[in-house]
Amino acid sequence: MATTIVLNQANLSVDSVDFSDQCSTVTVTESYEALEATAFGDTARKFVKGLGNHEISATLMISYGTSEVEEKLNSLAGTTFNVVVTPTTSGTPGTDNPAYTLTGCYLESVTPINGGVGELPTMDVTFRGGALTRATS
Question: Which pTM was predicted?
Fold first, then answer.
């Protein structure tokens, strides 16, 4: 029987800081470059796995102050660090709550001020590169 987890309690940790309470969306993308391995005599193109090009994207509600979203992400822009995402905030990683860790990812840019009158300010960030691992224990 198939089961589904609704991501209303996902966990997002950026450089060991838990931003789960300020995150409204998160996406983990595992991607590999396709390297062509077609040889003479083949009747169709063949591809093999190339370098990984992984990323984690998130929408965060901007908060200001010590160790808050704006300060932390501004300090991380242009550097490498780790990001961890799990589907739920409860319990430890397991088959029903895998932890995806992007080790050595890079944050290219941040938008520290983004909003208008009567709007909740948010920041869309994308953590790119690095090694993506999936842990179930």
Answer: 0.86
